[in-house]
Write a structure and sequence with these properties.
- The complex is a heterodimer of chains A (about 240) and B (about 150).
- Chain A is mainly α and about 240 residues long.
- In chain A, about 85% of the residues lie in helices and about 0% in strands.
- Chain A is built from 15 helices and one strand, in the order ααααααααααααααβα.
- The longest helix of chain A is centred in the middle third of the chain and has 28 residues.
- The radius of gyration of chain A is 19 Å and the shape is globular.
- With about 150 residues, chain B is α+β, with helices and mostly antiparallel strands.
- In chain B, about 35% of the residues lie in helices and about 15% in strands.
- The N and C termini of chain B lie far apart (about 70 Å).
- Classes of the chains: A mainly alpha (about 240), B alpha+beta (about 150).
- The interface between A and B is large, with 50 and 49 residues.
- Strand 1 of chain A pairs antiparallel with strand 1 of chain B.
């Protein structure tokens, strides 16, 4: 565990030594505020809930999370430090997990900084804070799933922009598989069982439960599966580079 | 062949892991697996008793394991409170149905509460003193719910 902790600490610190982290945080908070209060008609709804806030997260994270994770391995490959990292007395999986955890922690910081929305809604009314807690948990897992996919694409290439685009496309598929217009379209010619199967691969389907305040083992297992699979794939890619 | 050994083993491992994860996810859908419901149901129940109408949803797209086990299944309950305000309690776990979809048609008038959708203090005050009674049918018009007759 110690090597993981050491690398994760170094990686997390690296985020804050450059202005990129602060720029990202400002953009994230501005966009969150815009989508919640303006596009989400927060005040017009009159509801003391953060449904407008969480409802946008799958779409907001679609670009922002890959922007955080695109450099994780691509930068190491571009600067040639990947070989150095992998020759250190640590297993590749430890480096992969450590880098992932550092980026996830950074996203957790970004999410935590949205607390004014919670304060606002508590001042305006008496929201069901249990639902808000569940929503944050869901958002955190959603960000983790996107991030794991981005780590995987970042390991594939030394170009960060390519990593960003590929991960956005993969994450978009993960959204669209359960997006209502898409499932409605599928339902026209496919059987309900097929539509349900496709929708089961979507992050939106599994994020819905959290938005309602329900924590279901199936949703947890799904997000952890995506994270586990993507990180395992990252390991395979990195090992293939090392041997090739 | 030797050169690509790592890649081949990796690809096989990935395929195996994918199948295992799909199997685990499938198996876990076969059993009710709710870990916790963080909603405060006490508030929803406090809406009031009189003038109840059962409401039904267009149908769940999830399997039965996700279905809610509260008494006001399948869709929720529409309540006309003594003050003349209205309230819909949406049952959680009904896939494809957000509380907002239920509330939207009348939320600016007199909706008071619902699980996951507590209203701003100002709205609640207005609805407590409000005299507007919107018939259930009109309130639900345009929403994805209908009254059970």
């Amino acid at each position: 565990m110690k090597p993981i902790w050491t690398i994760a600490k170094r990686e997390l610190g690296a985020y804050f030594t450059s202005p990129v982290a602060y720029v990202f945080l400002v953009i994230f908070l501005l966009l969150t505020g815009f989508f919640t209060f303006t596009a989400g008609n927060f005040f017009e709804r009159g509801e003391a809930s953060l449904a407008a806030f969480f409802g946008w997260h799958p779409w907001l994270f679609l670009v922002l999370v890959p922007a955080v994770g695109m450099r994780v391995w691509a930068e190491e490959r571009r600067s040639g430090t990947m070989e150095l990292l992998l020759t250190m007395p640590i297993a590749p999986w430890q480096a992969i997990v450590a880098k992932f955890l550092a980026s996830w922690a950074f996203l957790a910081v970004a999410l935590a900084l949205t607390f004014p929305a919670v304060v606002t809604v508590n001042l305006l009314g008496e929201p069901d804070n249990g639902i808000i807690v569940a929503g944050y948990l869901g958002s955190f897992l959603l960000a983790g799933a996107y991030l794991a996919v981005t780590c995987m694409t970042s390991a594939m290439t030394r170009n960060q922009v390519v990593a960003l685009i590929v991960s956005v496309v993969i994450c978009l598929f993960l959204i669209l598989a359960g997006f209502n217009p898409v499932t409605d379209l599928l339902a026209r010619w496919a059987s309900p069982a097929f539509v349900d199967t496709v929708a089961a691969f979507s992050v939106v389907t599994h994020f819905d439960g959290f938005q309602r305040g329900v924590i279901d083992a199936r949703d947890l297992v799904f997000f952890l599966s995506v994270i586990g699979f993507a990180l395992f794939a990252t390991g395979v890619i990195i090992r293939s580079h090392r041997s090739g | 062949m030797k050169k690509h050994e790592n890649l081949i083993y990796g690809a096989v491992g990935l395929a195996a892991l994918f199948l295992i994860l799909v199997a685990v996810n499938y198996l876990i859908t076969r059993v009710p697996s709710r870990i916790g419901d963080l909603t405060r149901t006490d508030r929803a129940v406090a809406c009031g008793e009189p003038g109840r109408h059962d409401v039904q949803c267009p149908g769940s797209r999830r399997d039965e394991g996700q279905a809610d086990d509260r008494e006001w299944q399948p869709g929720g309950r529409f309540i006309e409170t003594p003050a003349g305000s209205l309230c819909v309690i949406c049952v959680h776990g009904v896939q494809g149905l957000f509380p907002m979809e239920v509330f939207r048609p009348f939320s600016s008038h007199s909706a008071v509460c619902g699980t996951g959708c507590q209203f701003f203090k100002q709205s609640s005050r207005a609805s407590r003193t409000g005299r507007i009674l919107i018939p259930a049918e009109r309130s639900l018009a345009g929403s994805r719910m209908q009254l059970v007759r």
